[in-house]
Amino acid sequence: MEAALEAGLTRHIGVSNFSSRKLHDLLDHCRIRPEVNQVELHPLLQQVSLWTDCTAEGIHITAYSPLGSLDRPAVVKAPDAPVLLEHPVICAIAAERGCTPAQVLLAWHVQRGISTIPKSVTPARLRENLAAAAIELSPDERARIEALDQNIRLVDGSFWLMDGGPWTLQTLWDAP
Ligand SMILES: NC(=O)c1ccc[n+]([C@@H]2O[C@H](COP(=O)([O-])OP(=O)(O)OC[C@H]3O[C@@H](n4cnc5c(N)ncnc54)[C@H](OP(=O)(O)O)[C@@H]3O)[C@@H](O)[C@H]2O)c1
Fold it and tell me: How far away, in angstroms, is 65 Cα from ligand 1 center?
């Protein structure tokens, strides 16, 4: 990616799914620092320590699967996985404000300075999601969302593992 940048093939380079450990290993060896780390991030997986670390290093965080990735493949969906868009706290805040649960989830990221990449193939939802940028949650609403952190990965990484491959779920995420 450094070579691609130097050749003018791209203007920005970044990484994805990097833990703090992998990021620091990279920073020790790279010539050009990544500008961004794209990771799963939503109220059930807030990644506070990684976010703090990236911010200290001047590396932007982008949140993927911000709406809970409902259409992820069935093979990677645990039967008891929570449905973020139906979470009672998120739905209650949406009902109180007269907006949608998706907008609450997206506004929360925008207000924290975290860019987010909701996916939709539905034009009305694309408009709805873009409009979330104008919603300002109150400190109390943000605190209610911040109390939901449970370290739950919805995209748990199992589909990146293969027989004989170098990774286990533990080494993939550098889980304790
Ligand atoms: N770097 C990585 O390893 C990684 C891993 C996973 C995902 N990603 C990327 O992250 C992006 C988003 O993640 P994701 O697709 O996993 O999940 P997501 O954006 O959290 O959820 C997408 C699902 O939410 C629905 N949706 C979108 N807007 C909605 C709204 N306003 N109300 C209700 N439902 C809504 C979509 O349905 P419709 O499309 O039918 O409207 C789709 O089923 C994608 O670009 C993906 O490629 C990156």
Answer: 5
How do residues 10-63 score in pLDDT, each as one tens digit? Answer: 999 999 999 999 999 999 999 999 999 999 999 999 999 999 999 999 999 999
Q: Which residues pair with 60 in a beta bridge?
A: 36
Q: What is the CATH number of the domain that holds 31?
A: 3.20.20.100
What is the torsional sign of CA 27, 20, 114, 138? Answer: negative
Q: What distance in angstroms lies between residue 68's CA and the mean position of ligand 1's atoms?
A: 7
Contact residues of ligand 1, CB 6 A cut-off = 16-17, 38, 64-72, 85, 100, 102, 117-122, 125, 128-129, 155
53 falls within a domain: yes
Q: How many domains does the chain have?
A: 1
